[in-house]
MBL fold metallo-hydrolase
Amino acid sequence: MYCIRKVTNDLLWIGGNDRQTPKFEAAHPVPRGMSYNSYLLLDEKTVLFDTVDRAVQTQFFENLEQALHGRKLDYVFVHHMEPDHAATLGDLMIRYPEARIVCNGKSVNMIRQFHCADPNHAILVNEGDTISTGRHTFTFANAPMVHWPEVMVSYDSTDKILFSADAFGTFGALNGVLFADELDFDRDWLDEARRYYTNIVGKYGPQVAALLKKAAGLDIQMICPLHGPVWRKDLGYILDKYSKWAAYEPEEQGVLIAFASIYGGTETAAAILACRLSELGIRTEMYDVSVTHYSYVLSDCFKYSHIVFASPTFNNGIFDPMEHLLRDLLHHNLQNRKVALIQNGSWAPASGKLMTQVLCEMKNMELLQEPITLKSALAPGQEKELEELAQVLAASVKGEASTPVQEPAADKPKGFVCKICGFIYESDTLPPDFVCPICRRPASDFEPVT
Ligand code: FEO
């Protein structure tokens, strides 16, 4: 049975929704499913705009056959070769061998690499090229790295529609709705749209900005992405979100507390900090990164202006889930945030220094103060340090910051670390007869903390 929705008088949505595969790209949980959009234009020539993921191929081919209603398929525009859109291109070309693939040169190479079809008869298009299908004329524009290098978009200058590939997509299945104005996008979909953007193309902000610049020169009345709802009203809303995300600008002034905790000491400190911030009227969100999938935490790191990372020391390093999160933020180019740190270590706290080192690899991450150090749990009276940190964060969120700003790189030696077990002897000098209280190694096995 077919499941089709009309987009315009001669454009149909013929994609599919996958509500069973638990993770998109084998990485990101999609508890609300995933849509794979494909569109069919019924002009003098027929045009298919991308195929779909294998997970929904049965529905897609039934939709396509119904939508064509006996007509031949003339063109298939390949905007993006990632298999969530091109895995069924080979099957399509077996079923509709007369169709001509329209793509750019980079896609031809990928069609060969994925062995999905014979690209020898493809119509190659470059930036600014046009194809007329009768009433409609399409212009092509490259959008490299939004999200792969071969990505291109096409613009229908007749109906003012941008076929935007991955751009403006979201996680989530389309449960009968097709248009963003048929649902409460801001309330029910924005979080998943942000999580999709940040995890899938968040690394490529400058390239997204380049696409937005090209789009700004066009009269766009509708955006048809390859995932999620179609935009035909209030386009400024989603364009504004993309503009912020691409520039790594926070959407909201507030504090995200990302913590990891093994026996609860770090969690207690994080929870007390959250209480003090809330009492100061600061919008605060917190995640246990050992429990919450990193894709959600990364998404909120893009959302909020301030982030507190709180982590135990583990095997002389950062506790694994926190290290994974920090590396993921680095790889997604997160930048322009104000941060604070809480480190924990029962005998040799080192996670503060190590988290600082990762933050130093990111652009424009500003440490508001020295890390707070816990030794197993909050010591008596240490709540005062959390209260002071809350005040520093609140002042910064409100733009009242008068605290001295410390660059992450300005970490000074504070003692000597045992190269064997990581114990830190906190002093300016190390006695020559010193013996490590943990592993009993001599002073010669120590080195200055850097
Ligand atoms: Fe939806 Fe980059 O694929």
